[in-house]
Design brief:
Elements: H1 2-22, E1 29-39, H2 42-52, E2 56-59, E3 67-70, E4 76-81, E5 91-98, H3 101-110, E6 120-121, E7 127-132, E8 138-143, E9 160-168, H4 171-178, E10 185-190, E11 199-203, E12 210-215, H5 230-236, E13 238-243, H6 246-255, E14 262-263, E15 268-269, E16 275-280, E17 286-291
Parallel strand pairs: 1-4, 5-8, 9-12, 13-17
Antiparallel strand pairs: 1-5, 2-3, 3-4, 6-7, 7-8, 9-13, 10-11, 11-12, 14-16, 15-16, 16-17
C-alpha cells in the first residue's frame, strides 16, 4: 500500500511539474468580436452601417473618438476617425472574443510574444489588449462584458459576423501565429483560377467563425503594394455577415430601398459554393453577405469543419 501511495504521489508531482513547465493554458477563442475600420466621412459611414446594414449605433468604450455599430451583444463594427498619414489603409484591427483577456495576455507573453503589461478595462465591463501578428497587423483579444445586452437593431440584415479577412503576403508567416500559437483550424481554401491559391480560411479553435487570409504578392510584412487602389484593398480587408438566404436578404434590401451605396449588381454563388452579395462602405471596406451553408460543391478543397450558424 505504501509503495502504491508513493507511486501515485510521484506521478502527481510529475504531472504538476509538467503543467508548470508548459506555462499558462491558452483561454478559449470563441469567435469574432469586431472589425475596426477608419472613416473619412462619419455621416456617410453612419448612414451605411445604421440605415443600410441596420446595425445599432452605440458609444465606443474602447475609444471615445470612435463609434460602434452593433449587430449582437458581442459583435460589432468599430468605426474610428481616419488618422493622418493613413494613405489608402482603412483597417485598424481585427478582434476576437476570448473567455479571459488576462489569461490570453499571460499565455502569449509566456510564449515570447510581445504583449502590453496589462489588459485595458472598459466602462462596460469588457477587457481587452492588443498585439501585432507576424505581418504587423493589429489584433485585439476581447473578453466581453458579463452584462452585454443585445442591441436595438430590428432592421439588421444579419446578426452574426461569421468571418473577417485581410491582406496577407505570407501564409507560412501568419500560420506561426494563428495556427501554431492560437490554434486556428483549417476550414476551406481556394482561388479564382485552378492551381492558384487566393484565400485560406481557418476557424477559431473554440467556435465556427473564421479568419480569411486574402493572399497577395510580395514578401511577408512588406505592407500595402504601391500600385494597390483603395477599392482593391477594401476587397481584401473585409467582414462577412451570415444569413440563411442571401437572395432573400438581397430582395429585402431592394424592397426597402436600402441599396443606395456601392454594391454588386446581384447575388452570386462564390467559389466556395455559397451565395454571396458584396456591399461597400463609403471608404470601400467590403461587407459580404454570405449563406451559412453552401448550395453547391466548393471548388479547390472540401470544408473541413462545421459551418457557422445563427
Amino acid at each position: 500500500m505504501y509503495w502504491k501511495l508513493s507511486t501515485a504521489l510521484f506521478a502527481s508531482t510529475l504531472t504538476l511539474a509538467a503543467a508548470a513547465a508548459a506555462g499558462p493554458v491558452r483561454p478559449e477563442i470563441t469567435g469574432i468580436s469586431h472589425l475596426a475600420v477608419y472613416t473619412s466621412n462619419a455621416a456617410a459611414t453612419e448612414h451605411y452601417y445604421r440605415d443600410i446594414i441596420g446595425a445599432a449605433k452605440e458609444s465606443d468604450p474602447e475609444n471615445p473618438a470612435g463609434v460602434r455599430y452593433a449587430l449582437s451583444a458581442t459583435q460589432f463594427v468599430e468605426v474610428l476617425p481616419l488618422p493622418a498619414g493613413a494613405g489608402i489603409n482603412r483597417l485598424d484591427h481585427t478582434a476576437w472574443n476570448v473567455t479571459s483577456a488576462e489569461g490570453m495576455r499571460k499565455y502569449l507573453a509566456a510564449k515570447g510574444w510581445k504583449t502590453p503589461a496589462a489588459v485595458t478595462k472598459g466602462s462596460d465591463g469588457s477587457q481587452w489588449f492588443e498585439v501585432q501578428d507576424p505581418e504587423m497587423n493589429k489584433v485585439e483579444f476581447v473578453q466581453p462584458s458579463a452584462h452585454a445586452k443585445a442591441p436595438n437593431a430590428p432592421n439588421a440584415i444579419g446578426t452574426h459576423i461569421i468571418h473577417v479577412g485581410f491582406m496577407v503576403h505570407s501564409r507560412a508567416a501568419e500560420d506561426t501565429f494563428y495556427r501554431d500559437l492560437l490554434g486556428f483550424k483549417p476550414y476551406w481554401f481556394g482561388g479564382m483560377q485552378e492551381g492558384k491559391l487566393d484565400w485560406v480560411s481557418q476557424q477559431v479553435p473554440n467556435g465556427h467563425d473564421w479568419l480569411e487570409y486574402m493572399l497577395t504578392s510580395g514578401p511577408s510584412g512588406s505592407g500595402i503594394p504601391a500600385n494597390m487602389t483603395l477599392h482593391a484593398l477594401g476587397v481584401l480587408d473585409h467582414l462577412s455577415i451570415g444569413v440563411v438566404s442571401v437572395p432573400d436578404a438581397y430582395k429585402k434590401l431592394e424592397a426597402e430601398n436600402r441599396l443606395t451605396g456601392v454594391h454588386d449588381k446581384e447575388p452570386k454563388i462564390g467559389k466556395d459554393g455559397k451565395w454571396q452579395f458584396n456591399l461597400y462602405d463609403p471608404d470601400e471596406i467590403r461587407l459580404e453577405l454570405m449563406n451559412f451553408h453552401a448550395s453547391e460543391k466548393p471548388c479547390c478543397s472540401p470544408f473541413t469543419a462545421a459551418d457557422p450558424d445563427k
